[in-house]
Automatic annotation (TrEMBL):
It comes from Papilio xuthus. GO terms for molecular function: calcium ion binding; patched binding. GO terms for cellular component: extracellular space. This is Protein hedgehog. It comes from the Eukaryota.
Length: 160
């Protein structure tokens, strides 16, 4: 686990009310995220990604441990909740710790590595501009990619 700077927001609307998934692990960590958000789960070869809505009881979240170590913890409860405020930060690494659980910065695309590559131009633009302005709503670049992806991505990669 390493710190990764937040460069910009792919989506930011503090006043929006949406449906979220609340996912609780046996160690008490609870992450609240949109159903289409990618979470990074423990797997035999490191980690695997899954849309939050597809997380099942017994899946293993990677949670903050001591120091720089991630601690696996089994999912024991999931539920849909309504919450106010939508925030999708983009970090240099493309990952983020949310509520002590490891998550991808990305949503809507089933591949963290594909989404990370596609967002490279936005990371570059954000690191060059260094503006203090906080955009509201879906970033124009992310919106363009989502529209483009509707035409070129196979359905197995899309959140439906």
């Amino acid at each position: 686990m390493i710190y990764s700077e937040v460069l910009t927001f792919m989506d930011r609307d503090p006043n929006a009310t949406r449906q979220f998934m609340e996912i609780t692990a046996e160690n008490g960590v609870t992450i609240t995220t949109t159903p289409s958000h990618l979470l990074l789960l423990a797997a035999a070869d490191g980690w695997r990604e899954s849309f939050a809505v597809n997380i099942k009881l017994g899946d293993v979240l990677l949670t903050r441990g001591t120091g720089s170590v991630m601690r696996p913890s089994k999912v024991v409860h999931t539920r849909m909740v309504k919450r106010r405020g939508v925030f999708a930060p983009l970090t240099k690494a493309g990952t983020i710790i949310v509520d002590d659980a490891l998550a991808s910065c990305y949503a809507l695309v089933r591949s963290h590595s594909l989404a990370h590559a596609a967002m490279a131009p936005l990371r570059w633009m954000a690191s060059w501009s260094k503006t203090e302005e906080m955009p509201r709503g879906v970033h124009w670049y992310a919106n363009a990619l989502y529209s483009f992806g509707d035409y070129v991505l196979p359905s197995k990669y899309k959140y439906l």
